[in-house]
Amino acid sequence: MKPTLLRALLPLALTLPLAAAQASEPYRTLTLQAGNQAGLRGFEGVVEAQRQTVLAAQVPGAIVEIAVKVGDRVKAGQLLIRLDARAAEQGAQASAAQAQAVKAQLALAQRDFERQQQLRAQGFISQGALDQAEAQFKASSAQLQAQAAALEAARTQTGFHRVTAPYDGVVAEVPVSLGDMAMPGRALVTVFDPRALRVTASVPQQLRLPDAAALQVEIPALGQRLNPTRVQRLPLADAGSQTQAVRLELPESAAQPGQFARLWVPQEQAAAPTRLWVPQAALVRRAELRAVYVLDPKGQPQLRQLRLGPVQGDQVEVLAGLSAGERVVLEPQRAAKGAK
Q: Which family does the similarity line name (predicted)?
């Protein structure tokens, strides 16, 4: 063989064994294991008020008094805001005067009816005259009842110009100022009950929660952990995140609505779900497809579509598509070349 041809074939001869070795090199894989980590598992949440009321006026009117400010503690029935009620009060006074006039007419009609009864008994008047006097008395009585109802309605209308606290609580917001025009439905004051608070958090749908006594709610702003008094799992789930909201009622504390909270769940066998996790680097993303390569019994990579859940760091939870014990290829690009 010529020396030039030998020099040309020598690099090829050296690369063929290397390529064969690379082809026969096994894939780097991860064997999925189903298990539960010991300790506590946290979920973010927020403090809410079980009773929080946005108060508005039932009638229009100019605001002439604001009796509270944000942060004030109020008692049930305490005045919060007063509107200009002069027109309503004048209407109530007019209704009261009309009621007095009708009451006087009724007294006159009653005396006339009693006289007519006496005259009829003596035979001085006809039955028709007596019936007419009786009808006048009954009409005056009905008119007085109607006027009394109108007077009560006018007084009630006057009361609508006072916005009072529905229960003992704390003023959370006063978004109006003196002189503003209050309209029906416009928020004037927000009040909440500080003795009835809860934390709302989102947890995986498959998470089995233990009793309230085994749970802890942390309020970082206060540096304290509390045991909820009651746990409620809402019936609706979020299809996008595959989570479900839970509400945890708190004992009386200094927490405030809107504060960040964290729910801590013990990772015990009876309470924690079986979860499978894969590295995000092992995922194959093609449009909306999310998949991984899984080795079959012969060691050949097969593409498997997945349904994924929450992401924690470089790991993503597998909700459907994989089982414990299967081997996931950690080199998806290399597995794609060797897949059947």
A: Belongs to the membrane fusion protein (MFP) (TC 8.A.1) family.
